[in-house]
Amino acid sequence: MNKTARMMLITALAVPFSCTMTAGVADSSSLSEQGHLPDGTPYSLIRPAGWNGTTIVMPGREELTGGVPQWLGEQGYGIIGYELSDNWNLAQDRNNASSAVEIFSETAGTPDTVILSGRSQGGLVTRIVTDATPAWLDGSVPMCGGGAGAISMWNTKLDSAFALRELVDPDSQMSITRIQDERREQAAMNDLVSTASATNHGQARIVLAAALSKIPAVDAKTGEDVPAANLDKRIAEYTDAMPFALGIGVRAGFEQTIGGSFSWNDGVDYRKELKASGRWSEVQLAYREAGADLEADLQTLANAPRVTADQTAVSMVERLATFTGNLEVPVLSLHTTGDPAGATAEEKAYADAVRAAGDNHNLRQTFVSADGHCTFTTAEQITAIETVADRIENGHWASTSPRSLARIAEAAQEATEIELGATRFTTPHPALPGRPWDVRNWDSYVPAE
User: Under a CB-based contact definition with an 8 Å cutoff, are residues 148 and 346 in contact?
Assistant: First the structure.
């Protein structure tokens, strides 16, 4: 969209806002401000001297601190970051991206190019906004952020929690869904993990539970996968990751926002899910070394009462936070291989949806060999943003191989005194996503009677 058309669009959409300005827009000097979006959400804005006409919208970076915003401003990018909602109010977060663009345009000048980039919840918001195809968007860089969509993501988390509860202590106070008391739920989860980790049989059950949601086992020091031969180390990684991986606090807040439960396992065959997980052999080995009966535990899961969802809540989440796969602008995702909150299999689910929509030419996916959730260096983040900016400017993708991305980062470091950190780009082989759910599945969930 050209600059005149952008100004016409933003004028039509413009709404009042509050801010504290530190510079005017009539000259080419730098501008920095903090204020509030129309709904009261805090934001920060920077337009550097010599602004290059590109603006980066950053959900979840309302203070614009750290190396990434500093480097972007130094290189001439305009930036606006805004605070994300509590309780996963994703509709609010999505709408605030458009509000941020309007405010930047009214305050600092209409961008020629707009790129959206958020991490974690902000990464999911980036995907949601991209799927909605607003007229102002030219490209996006989701970092982590639930590529499988919220239905699939939370169904697999339910699977892991369900397996732990039913196999370790079916009388546990952990409700899994329809959480009324977040602290009690978290305490119940911690008790289950502690109980399981105290015995060999319990540890085997942790391996089974981790397989269902593809929780990774990555060495924190090296960023590499823990070798399959080191089962004890892998079990330790699964055990440490489990409480965070199941996201109890986030689920509780999202259920409150949506007004019901959007996750279920009625009709799920856990033997089938385990065999499709890519971890069947590891689960068998863990049970064999523990002297435990895998068949008996699978039968226990098959016989356990199932968890149903609220059909209305499912429908709401489908349209809010699962994907059509339609990409009208270039997208480059960034994901850590050791993310316990979202396995790399979620990126495969996203790619499958995009491919089914016929838009895979607009998608590139990049990975960083690192433990943890969104544990990217400054260099890795700015390399992803620069790659999308280059794609927008030149109309075609440059190479996104790990070696090519590392060269981009090296050039960026040579051009600045800011310490950008190392790069750890890699090419993993994601497992098949668990229980995928996108536009092809909408309106197909019916609670079992």
Answer: yes
Average pLDDT, integer, range 255-264: 97
Please give the model's pTM, rounded to 2 decimal places. 0.92
Q: Could you count the other beta carbons within 10 Å of the beta carbon of residue 420?
A: 21
Instruction: Give yes or no for residue 67 having a pLDDT over 70.
Output: yes
Q: Which two tokens stand for residue 15?
A: 């709404």
What is the identity of the amino acid at 403? R
List the one residue out of 79, 145, 58, 64 whose CA is nearest residue 333.
145
Q: Are 78 and 48 in contact (CB under 8 A)?
A: yes
Give which of 35, 49, 57 is closest to 107, Cα–Cα: 35
What's the average model confidence in pLDDT over 389-411?
97
Chain-centroid distance, C-alpha 45: 24
DSSP assignment string, 263-285:
---TT--HHHHHHHTT-HHHHHH
Mean of the pLDDT values across residues 154-162?
Answer: 98
Q: Give mean pLDDT, residues 346-373.
A: 97
Query: Which residues lie closer than 8 Å to 328 by C-beta, 6 or more apart?
Result: 133, 359, 362
Question: Where do the domains of the chain lie?
Answer: 3-148+326-426, 150-317
Q: What's the alpha-carbon Rg for the chain, to the nearest Å?
A: 23
Whether 368 and 380 have beta carbons less than 8 Å apart is answered as yes
Pick the closest to residue 377 from 419, 339, 414, 412 (CA basis).
Answer: 419
Instruction: Quickly list DSSP for 383-410.
Output: HHHHHHHHHHHHSSPPP-SHHHHHHHHH
pLDDT of residue 4 exceeding 50: no
Q: How many CA atoms lie within 13 A of 252 on its CB side?
A: 13
Tell me how far apart the alpha carbons of residues 80 and 57 are, in angstroms, rounded to a whole number: 5
Q: How far apart are CA 10 and CA 104, in angstroms?
A: 10
Contact 285, 200 (CB under 8 A): no
Determine the pLDDT at residue 408.
Answer: 97
Q: What percent of the chain has pLDDT over 90?
A: 91
**Of 17-26, 30-39, 91-100, 234-243, which range is least confident?**
17-26
Cβ atoms of residues 127 and 145 within 8 Å: yes
Q: Which of 429, 424, 434 is nearest to 219 (CA)?
A: 424
Architecture of domain 3-148+326-426: 3-Layer(aba) Sandwich (3.40)
Cβ(236)–Cβ(215) under 8 Å? no
